[in-house]
Amino acid sequence: MLDLLFVYGTLRSEFDNRYARLLRKEAGFLRRASMPGSIYRVGHYPAFRPHPEGAVQGELYRMHTPEVTLAVLDEYEGDEFERVVVEGAWLYQYKGDPPEEARIASGDFRAP
Length: 112
Hints:
This protein is α+β, with helices and mostly antiparallel strands and about 110 residues long. The chain has one domain (about 5-100): Hypothetical upf0131 protein ytfp (Roll). The protein is about 20% helix and about 40% strand. Strands 1-5-2 form a three-stranded antiparallel β-sheet. Strand 6 and strand 7 form a beta hairpin. Helix 1 (about 20-25) packs antiparallel against helix 2 (about 65-75). The protein starts with a strand and ends in an 18-residue tail after the last strand.
């Protein structure tokens, strides 16, 4: 199973929630990274969409036991998100269609 995970929101290392701590325990941080696409502010969290073109800023991790880690993160992300592969890494993509005015122009959830 693919063992790379790209995170762009509340799972990033700057956050100290239960699931971000779990990711840091169950995966090794590789580097800061970016993915093609856009992010939107949906409530208090970001939502990735593949279009329009842009660069989404985040972090890349290598999971030790991807099946276990992803099962927990799937539950955390919930029904509004689906896990997809982009450029060789898993990431959570928003299923909805957020309004254009909710787009985070910088592509970085921490620096909108």
